[in-house]
Amino acid sequence: MTEEKIRTADKSQPAGKLKKAVRVLWVIYFVFLTIIFLSLTSVAFHDILSLADYCINLVTLVGLYGFVWSKAIGRNQFWKAFFGFFVVWEVFVSFVVPVLMPGLEMYGAKELGVVYDIVGIVLLAPLLYALYKYSSACQNCAPVILKGSWRSLLEWLHFSYRQEELKAQMDGYDSLKFHRTARGMAVICVVAVMLITLGFTLAGGNGMIPALTNPQFWFTVTLYGVATLFVYLEKRWANMALFLIWTIDKISTGVMFPKSIFWQIVGWLIFAPFFYRSYQVETAKARLKAKAPAVAETEPKPEGDSHPKT
After folding, report:
1. Which pLDDT tens digit goes with each residue over 256-280?
2. From residue 182, how far is each of 56, 108, 124, 196, 216 by CA, in Å?
3. Residue boundaries of the structural domains of the chain
4. Contact between residue 151 and residue 207 where contact means Cβ atoms under 8 Å apart
5. Are 120 and 60 in contact (CB under 8 A)?
6. Distance CA 24, CA 19 (A)
């Protein structure tokens, strides 16, 4: 019996190693595609067709992530429809657009050259395979949405706290050092943003005086300052306000200066998680506070003498 188990284990080892190797290749493929996607950010606003293709490619990256890490994101009916749409879109962009609009250069094709075309053809086949398998409810990915799948994605990206991390923040809400609390880290991030903004303002001006007389600089300082003050005062809405202000700031700057879109995305990814996690902690605190009176009301009252004294 022992020999049979050993033989079975020996047979399963090569299969297990092959599966791990394939998984590693898929992870490398995902990272490589993500780098290419980010590199196209600066030229995504070259024309409306490039922008549409860029947004569609973003959805494909989400699907590829779900396939590689076995995460159910959305319903598989959506992914079935999207897979068909994506195939039609690629045929349209690759064969129809050059005929109908011969002068159009998507993503500034002249600057990117033949390399982009070759890389696109080589990398498209695995992506189509992954999207097809993901939309077909294969054994590697769930066919329907799972409760908390979006939260799992945020946790994997370190955008939100895991349950044990959130519990640690709640338990140490008043005892942790300020810079270790979620709201403390959010405040520190705003200070860092202000210093970076001042640095860029000084770099664009002729010195400290022009920077301090710049109305845009003071508007930014006031906006972030007021939101940060209420974050420090433990106001939940202020954390979400800070998150939205930072998001709108990056989007508007990216639209005004398309060549800086890549760095706007990087800046947003660096600081936005801290604002969101602070909001997450304050939300959990508010829910706990709301449950406290309800628990107190449901507690049994001490039994007393129900009959009046005579």
Report:
1. 777 777 778 888 888 888 898 899 8
2. 34, 43, 41, 21, 29
3. 2-146, 158-292
4. no
5. no
6. 9
CA pair distance 273, 267, nearest whole angstrom: 11
What is the reported pTM?
0.50
Using alpha carbons, select from 236, 243, 237 the residue that is nearest to residue 282. 236
Cα–Cα distance measured from residue 249 to residue 260, given in angstroms and rounded to the nearest whole number? 13
pLDDT tens digits for 147-167? 445 555 555 556 778 788 888
End-to-end, the C-alpha distance of the chain in Å comes to 83
Nearest-10 crossing angle of helices 261-298, 182-204: 160
Torsion, Cα of 82, 87, 91, 92 (10° steps): -10
Report the alpha-carbon angle 75-79-85, nearest 5: 145
Distance CA 193, CA 207 (A): 19
Contact 199, 267 (CB under 8 A): no
Distance CA 108, CA 119 (A): 16
Q: Which two tokens stand for residue 205?
A: 């001006």
